[in-house]
Amino acid sequence: MLFRSMIYVSGRTSTLRPSARDEALALRRALAARSYLVARGVSPLKIMVNFASATDFVADNSTPEGRYLNQRVDIELVYVPMY
Prior knowledge:
The chain has 83 residues and is of the alpha+beta class. Helix content is 33%, strand content 33%.
């Protein structure tokens, strides 16, 4: 069985309420990570970009340290079987 890899890049913010400004920031973060990967030889056809503000927190958002951790880009490598 052969596998094809896909990369999911997700930009996030630490805001508590979604807004157009924060959505744009999350998108810019994801696109910057995509550009970084493409500049290093990853095919842009293998990268899917996602973004969201005020969601998917990984830390307590009520502390400065938690907000810092929630302002991030997640990069996930997924192997898709090909039959």
